[in-house]
Amino acid sequence: MIFYASALFVLICSFIFQEFIPALPWAHYSTLLLVHTIFYTSAVCVPFPIMLGFAFVAGYIWDCRYYLPVQTGEAAAMTGQFEIPFGMTILIFGIMGAVLQGVRPFFGRGRWELPIFMVGVCTLVGLLIQFLVISFQRGDFGMGSEFWVYVFLTSFFSLLVAPLILFLFSRIAGALNHKIYVDGIARRYNSHGDTI
Amino acid sequence: MNRLNLAYVAIFVVLLIWIGFFESQKVERIQRGALAIFSPFIKASGRVSNTASTLEGRQMTYSQLEEAYIASRRERDQLRIEMLQLEEVTSENDELRKALDYKARSPLNLLPTRVVNRKPLTWYNTVVINKGSADGVAADLPVIAPVGKDGAGLVGKVTEVLSANSSVVLLLTDEMCQVPAVMEESEDQGIVSGERTLVRHSPTLRLRYLAKEADLESGDLVVSSGVGEVFGKNLLLGKVREFKRGVIDTEAILVPVVDFENLEDVFIMLPNAAGSASSSDQASVNVSSSVGG
């Protein structure tokens, strides 16, 4: 339990550090999404219910900080609908976290390659989902080269930092004598072969 | 997945749906509360960023000297724009007297402000400024910056008031900041907006919905037309770089007149005494002889 509280503390602190991470103008303002990276890495270190809790907390705080009420068109202004709905980050974190739960056993066995790769993939897919929602609202799917540079570089930065975060979590777990559980959300069976 | 996990998923989804039904006012209240906590960090990161760019660009100066320099520059910029207002007031008075159709007009009510954080959001080109609800700032107010010797260029509009002392400005370079525009020479009308989300370095603008036979050429100036409810008239937007005639309309690429990469001091056009900042009888800024930048 102390490990989960520590992971949550790290996750919340990442919002403060996120403010100080610069965006790179020469790379179309690509940046390291530290909160996303820490959430995705924590998703391979904690059980499924805890991951959902983290997704809720991190997504909620992210939307509180970065949600921008931008409307599309007069009809949207009348109905009060915004391009990206408040709470969408929670949904994205929840879905991506569930995907990452699938590679939890690898991390538990000391194999970090796939979890790290998946952190990058989930960052990429999360950004793509948001962009597709925006594009759908605006009525066209213009994905220029700048878009791909931004999305891939931002995901790449997450990929680069993910080992450090995983190392941090494994050290915290070690210090707290916490064993990172390896079952993930895999289906479990009893001795008769029935689903538990 | 076992049943317990399914129950957790169900709780998660219910909470998500509950949040999804939040009304915009409630979301605004929640955001204000959260941003009150984040505000010191946002400002601190802006200061760090400014210090870093200062160290990068030129030698360090004494902080007091720098403050005095910033203050005097802000005052100079404000005076330039006030001078524009006076010129406009004079010329319009003359015209109105000639027409014997006098209509009182209120002067522009400009609020000087400073960009404190220029890091854009993931999908929107925004900056954070250091004025908020305490100074009467509200959503949809236009934000301008001095251009050249006597011009005023449109920077964008306030999208969200974060706190008593900070607001978010959606820049003209964002696709969602759409401004009714007019060619200064030919008076052909269209809509100016930024490019889709990510062209932020040396950004360009798009002028769409021009008539197919619109009269334009490279270098022509485009200003705001004042049509609509948000932006005033004759605010500088950009210069035509290239254009393409389509089957039913003409589209042009503009180079913005405002230097968006080095935005520091900007002005919010507050509502004047007569009504909103965007009313049709709002004071316009005369820029016909301007455009140095």
Question: Roughly how much helix do the residues of chain B carry, as a percent range?
Answer: 25-40%
Rg result of chain B: 22 Å
When the domains of chain A are counted, the total is: 1
Describe the biggest sheet of chain B? 6 strands, antiparallel, barrel
General form of chain B: globular
Helix content percent band of chain A:
55-70%
Strand content of chain B: 25-35%
Summed up:
The complex is a heterodimer of chains A (196) and B (293). Chain A is mainly α.
Topology:
The complex is a heterodimer of chains A (196) and B (293).
Chain A: H1 2-19, H2 34-43, H3 48-66, H4 73-79, H5 88-101, H6 104-108, H7 113-138, H8 145-175
Helix pairs in contact in A: 1-2, 1-3, 2-3, 2-5, 2-7, 2-8, 3-5, 5-7, 7-8
Chain B: H1 3-20, H2 24-57, H3 63-99, E1 109-117, E2 126-129, E3 142-147, E4 151-163, E5 166-171, E6 179-183, E7 189-194, E8 205-211, E9 221-225, E10 233-245, E11 249-256, E12 265-270
Antiparallel strand pairs in B: 1-2, 1-12, 2-5, 3-4, 3-12, 4-5, 6-7, 6-9, 7-8, 8-11, 9-10, 10-11
